[in-house]
Amino acid sequence: MKWLVLALGILANAAASLLVKKAVTEPRRMPSLADPIGALLNWPFWVGLVLYGATFLIYTAALTKLPLNVAHPILTSGAIAAVALGSAVFFGESLPWSTIAGIALVILGVALISLKTI
Q1: Whole-prediction pTM value?
Q2: Does the pLDDT value for residue 117 go beyond 70?
Q3: Which whole-number Å values give the CA distances from 23 to 30, 47, 86, 108, 115, in the listed order?
Q4: What residues form the membrane-spanning segments (predicted)?
Q5: Total domains, the chain
């Protein structure tokens, strides 16, 4: 169950980041007081903001079951990997071999950090 909670945190964090990117990508733009109606109608921004809050709550729940030195690196690195992949899929951003290698090395490093807990 603790790993499921952490996986949900990773997904919520990554989804929030991808939605915030969508919120500031044309035809949308950064919500501002100069355009209050546009700001209110920018649903990706608001959903992303809510997901960031949900990520914090999920992370807090994970900390009740896992040590901080395990939960934080897994959540952070998992979100980094998920955002890199999601940005390539949803925004057509590049995913060079160096990024893939970096993600693999981060995952390996976090696995080593978490070895005794897994």
Answers
A1: 0.87
A2: no
A3: 7, 10, 15, 33, 38
A4: 40-62, 74-91, 97-115
A5: 1
